[in-house]
Design brief:
The chain starts with 10 loop residues before the first helix and ends with a strand. The protein has 770 residues and is an alpha+beta fold. 31% of the residues lie in helices and 23% in strands. The N terminus is likely disordered. Helix 3 packs across helix 9 and helix 11 packs antiparallel against helix 15. It is built from 22 helices and 34 strands. The strands form seven sheets. Strands 14-18-19-25-22-21-20-33-34-32-31 form an eleven-stranded mixed β-sheet, with helices on both faces. Strands 1, 2, 3, 4, 6, 7, 8, 9 and 10 form a nine-stranded mixed β-sheet that branches. Strands 27-26-28-29-30 form a five-stranded mixed β-sheet, sandwiched between helices. The chain has four domains: 230 residues, YbaK/aminoacyl-tRNA synthetase-associated domain (YbaK protein), CATH 3.90.960.10; 192 residues, Bira Bifunctional Protein, Domain 2 (BirA Bifunctional Protein, domain 2), CATH 3.30.930; 121 residues, Anticodon-binding domain (Rossmann fold, 3-Layer(aba) Sandwich); 90 residues, C-terminal domain of ProRS (Translation Initiation Factor IF3, 2-Layer Sandwich). The radius of gyration is 30 Å and the shape is globular. Bound molecules: zinc ion (ZN). The site of zinc ion (ZN) has 8 residues, from loops.
Length: 770
């Protein structure tokens, strides 16, 4: 629950804030002066903060200790760096802002982040914290770091551990808080690019309210000076420090050279999908103008080209759920701590990702307020209030909103973002039977969103106990597949919550039997579909020319481009071609086809072709002088590149049909591709090779949780990492498909589980996943 929780501002620290006293030593460029007495030189009597000498009369012993370590570190380096005092900061963004606004700070600087992780250790054992020192822009991936160090389940360390080892909170830590004694008790890992960088780095001096500016060399020298025979400074491997996601690969590493497309023109995607999938994906999103990066890490701007897809989904889905009697409503985004934590199992599933508001202006809130990670707990107290009798059931509400899950894994646009858009439906019924029926009705609507609108195939099924929604009874799911990475992806889920939330000790939602006054606790469902769907669509259909949009969700379905205009073309001819193009577009619009004529001056047809291909417009219609003579247009499909001349007579119905064909073809191609990667496996030896060949597997499975853990463990260890940004993980269960008819019937007592050899229950999909 750390996320955006801010540190409490102590009185003394707060008093210091406004004074902004600047303590300056020599400039950082003049480092090598021979003096061990600099603390005295940089601290005149009128400069109360910070004091680097151990005899400081500082208010708390904590500060004294941290100051002493800092003083020792700096004297060891014989430097007296520029130091500024400022208000305490509780986030990198705020820290950066405060420094940038400071008159005495260097113009250009980079933040250094000092992260402390705790590996999973037995309760009795003393933990050995892992301290990761990295540049601000370096994405640190705890999974990969754990893998590199051979440590299990690294988690950001709690405040108590930081106090125990460093005597500081997370907002005050820096490499200078580590001394020789401390160094021997921890594992220290440094981002190797710090040493070679010419940047000036900002580090907290000894608290979150002071900053010093040093070079990368100084940081490394300090840490090296702490090394002993037993304990050495470690370097962060590439997998643990994936380059920050950037709009374009500015400096692609050499081994990625072959990913570049030969002769790629300025506006092409520039990277091959099958070679560097991660860069390809972000390039497509940027070049198709779907998305832009945002100043808060893990958050993205959805531009009209992608938001319009979401609107199509909304329009269709709203219509369908209203047929089922669902009504839209809106609940606040804030949830009080006590309400959020009422359902223990539920909150345990979400707690590491919950962001908290702890302060308003300068005052701390009495009780922190959570930003909803999902709305069960915000809505159900009111369900208890509103549901009084049988007549109030079923209650079916939906809301279109955003939720926040403060992920620490590598963010990926649409797939894993800290804030995302979705709809969440919450319904209550008198009986389990009614709830069961609705769970499947909704899942089928989700299937239609994917298959009919986005042309993305999915496999419907039920989640294992381990993978089901926290606090729910059972979870049904649609599982998608990204064949380029060979990974499964959860596409949408529809949960039956059972009576877990309606029980008297939870939200106490019941109706009374009019005859015997017995209480019936309601049966509840919740279901959600998010903008992740857009990312899955991009990954499934996109190619090396860019985005490929299925016609049903394309905000422009057909673009009309004037062609054959040369230097010899007269003004009159040119006007005539343009008019013909506009007339065609208008005719199509009148027939409810989303069409546009691209009459931009100063762009060649070739440029326009590329531009619209990159943006994925399903159909291009060319009109040139020859076409006009023949009263036809040349239709070029985005999905397969095929070209067909079409007569202009009756063009509306021809295009309507053609768009349907494209939609169907895109789905069929993707479905065949998906199923060609679902491998039926009946012995363990075949599991890892199948996964390594970018497949998911269908196995007879016992459905035991321990077996699932074991499969994940064994398939993770055996595998080689495939992509620096997607280190290979173990396979987890994706779903138990409802339709088991793809595979031979399971024979009770005869068919054995591929994982553990005990009796298998059902065929289950396992795979590496997003
Ligand atoms: Zn098993």
């Amino acid at each position: 629950m750390l996320a955006v929780r801010s540190a409490r501002v102590k009185g003394a620290a707060a008093a210091r804030i406004s004074r902004r006293i600047v303590c300056y030593g020599n400039q950082i460029s003049i480092r090598r002066f021979e003096s061990r007495t600099f603390p005295a030189r940089i601290h005149s009597a009128s400069c109360p903060f910070p004091r680097f000498h151990s005899t400081s009369s500082s208010t708390s012993s904590t500060t004294t200790m941290a100051d002493a370590k800092l003083a020792q570190a700096l004297s060891g380096l014989s430097i007296s760096p520029a130091t500024i005092a400022h208000e305490p900061t509780t986030s990198p963004a705020q820290w950066k802002e405060v420094i940038a606004a400071h008159a005495d700070a260097p113009k250009d600087f980079e933040l250094i982040k000092t992260l402390v992780y705790k590996p999973k250790t037995a309760k009795s054992a003393t933990p050995i914290p892992v301290v990761v020192i990295a540049r601000e822009a370096t994405e640190t991936n705890s999974g990969a770091i754990g893998k590199q160090l051979n440590l299990k389940e690294l988690r950001l360390a709690a405040g108590e551990l930081l106090q125990e080892f460093f005597g500081l909170d997370k907002d005050s830590l820096s490499p200078f808080a580590i001394d020789k004694d401390g160094f021997s008790k921890i594992v220290t890992v440094i981002d190797p690019s710090i040493a070679d960088s010419t940047s000036t780095f900002a580090l907290h001096a000894s608290s979150s309210s002071s900053t010093i500016f040093v070079s990368g060399k100084d940081i490394v020298s300090h840490l090296k000076s702490l090394e002993s025979e037993e304990t050495k400074l470690q370097e962060l491997a590439a997998a643990g420090a994936a380059a920050p996601a950037a709009p374009a690969p500015k400096a692609a590493p050499k081994e990625k050279e072959d990913a570049k497309i030969d002769g790629a023109v300025q506006i092409a995607i520039g990277v091959k999908k099958e070679v560097d999938f991660a860069s390809w994906y972000t390039n497509v999103l940027i070049k198709a103008d779907m998305l832009d990066y945002y100043s808060v890490s893990g958050c993205y701007i959805l531009k009209p080209w992608s938001y319009s897809i979401w609107e199509e989904i909304q329009t269709w889905f709203n219509k369908e759920i209203k047929k089922l009697g669902v009504q839209n409503s809106y609940f606040p985004m804030f949830i009080s701590q006590s309400v959020l934590e009422r359902e223990k199992e539920h909150i345990e599933g979400f707690s590491p990702e919950v962001a908290w508001v702890t302060r308003a202006g300068q005052s701390d809130l009495e009780e922190p307020i959570a930003i909803r990670p999902t709305s069960e707990t915000s809505m159900y107290p009111y369900y208890a209030k509103w549901i009084r009798s049988h007549r109030d059931l079923p209650l079916k509400l939906n809301q279109w909103n955003s939720v926040v899950r403060w992920e620490f894994k590598n963010p990926q646009p649409f797939l894993r973002t800290r804030e995302f858009l979705w709809q969440e439906g919450h319904t209550a019924f008198l009986t389990k039977e009614e709830a069961d029926v609705e769970v499947r009705q909704i899942l089928d609507l989700y299937r239609k969103v994917y298959e009919d609108l986005l042309a993305v195939p999915v496999i419907p099924g039920v989640k294992s106990e381990k993978e089901k929604f926290a606090g729910g009874l059972y979870t049904t799911t649609l599982e998608g597949f990204i064949s380029t990475s060979g990974r499964g992806i959860q596409a949408a889920t529809s949960h039956c919550l059972g009576q877990n939330f309606s029980r008297p000790e939870m939200f106490n939602i019941f109706v009374e039997d009019p005859q015997d006054h017995s209480k019936s606790y309601v049966w509840q469902n919740s279901w959600g579909l998010s903008t992740r769907a857009i990312g899955v669509m991009v990954m499934v259909h996109g190619d090396n020319q860019g985005l490929v949009l299925p016609p049903r969700v394309a905000s422009i379905q057909a673009v009309v481009v004037p062609c054959g205009i040369t230097a010899k073309t007269t003004e009159e001819q040119r006007t005539k071609i343009n008019e013909e193009c506009e007339a065609l577009a208008q005719k199509l619009r009148d027939a409810d086809i989303r069409a546009k004529a691209d009459l931009r001056e100063g762009y060649t047809p070739g440029y326009k072709f590329n531009d619209w291909e990159q943006k994925g417009v399903p159909l291009r219609l060319e009109i040139g002088p020859q076409d006009m003579k023949k009263n036809q247009t040349l239709a070029v499909r985005r999905d397969n590149g095929s070209k067909t001349p079409l007569p202009l007579g009756g063009i509306e119905s021809t295009i309507t049909e053609l768009l349907k064909t494209i939609q169907n073809d895109m789905f069929t191609t993707a479905r065949d591709n998906y199923w060609s990667h679902v491998k039926t496996i009946t012995q363990w030896e075949d599991v890892v090779p199948a996964l390594d060949s970018k497949n998911i597997i269908a196995i007879p499975w016992c459905e035991a949780e321990k077996c699932e853990d074991d499969i994940k463990d064994r398939s993770g260890r055996a595998a080689e990492p495939q992509d620096e940004r997607a280190p290979s993980a173990g396979a987890k269960s994706l779903c138990i498909p409802f339709d088991q008819s793809h595979w031979p019937a399971i024979e009770a007592g005869k068919t054995k589980c591929v994982g553990c050899g005990s009796d298998a229950k059902r065929w289950t999909l396992f795979g590496r996943s997003y």
